[in-house]
Design a protein that fits this description.
This protein is of the alpha+beta class. 39% of the residues lie in helices and 19% in strands.
Length: 264
């Protein structure tokens, strides 16, 4: 209510939320001293904030190291969110707009190891792209625009670790199986900012996809797809709509950056 009326958020609440938002894959714990330095707090204030969050289960205090990690209350909140539809509920309105505008199936997929996994899909036009539900489907890193739009924006080293430790699977005669060829395609996508494919993963479909970034980091992709039997015009005519939807979903999933001390 405070922000809706134009007033600044409650400072203590805002600081507590900023601390929770500061946890990442690289920043997995905080000590009192380093938290105080990072957020420009005195040590007593940092201690009170961490202790309060721990008392409510949002953090867990390691009694040996005296450092704080994320706690079980966040798992309970996340579980409730997922049971109520979670990510799909958030992004489906944006996918519906894209599906309506393009008359094609719109898909949002998130990274899942050496794949991207469809978490939401909305059919557009009169005929679904596939005869089976898409939600839950895994798209392999080396085949198709939906996955390439994400993997192209990882580093070559990350792709090497995820993709090339075993032989690449063949899905159609158009599937590239040579690592150098796959990497060349990844570089093209990274250069232009979007991906197109026709028949690499499913020989009967075409797809156009764009990466989704959250806080500057790729997390997945938005794509539109069509069955080759459809006569809907050039799918690439909808590139701007796909790019716009990917940016809108990235903005939706991004959180406000924690208010940290500015280092000189």
């Amino acid at each position: 209510m405070a922000e809706a009326s134009g007033r600044a958020p409650l400072q203590t609440v805002d600081r507590a939320l900023s601390i929770l938002l500061s946890f990442t894959e690289r920043r997995t714990d905080w000590g009192v001293t380093d938290l105080a330095k990072e957020f420009d707090l005195d040590k007593s204030a940092a201690q009170r904030l961490l202790s309060t969050l721990a008392s409510r289960g949002f953090l867990h205090a390691d009694q040996t190291t005296r450092r704080y990690r994320l706690g079980p209350a966040l798992w309970r909140i996340a579980s409730t969110w997922e049971r109520r539809g979670g990510m799909a509920v958030l992004v489906e309105p944006l996918l519906a707009d894209l599906a309506d505008a393009s008359s094609r199936t719109a898909v949002f997929a998130l990274a899942d190891g050496a794949y991207v996994r469809c978490v939401a899909a909305v059919d557009g036009g009169t005929t679904p792209m596939r005869d089976h539900p898409l939600v839950g489907e895994l798209y392999p890193a080396h085949a198709g625009a939906t996955s390439r739009a994400y993997f192209a924006f990882l580093s070559a080293g990350q792709r090497q670790q995820l993709m090339y430790h075993r032989p690449l699977a063949k899905f159609s005669d158009l599937t590239a199986l040579d690592a150098a060829e796959v990497e060349a395609e990844m570089q093209k996508v990274a250069d232009v900012g979007w991906a197109y494919s026709a028949g690499e993963y499913d020989q009967n479909t075409r797809a156009l996809a764009a990466p989704v970034f959250v806080a500057g980091r790729p997390v997945g992709s938005v794509s539109i797809g069509e069955h080759k039997r459809e006569r809907l015009g050039d799918i690439n005519d909808h590139l701007d709509a796909v790019l716009r939807t990917a940016q809108q979903i990235g903005n939706l999933l991004s959180s406000h950056a924690p208010q940290r001390k500015q280092h000189r």
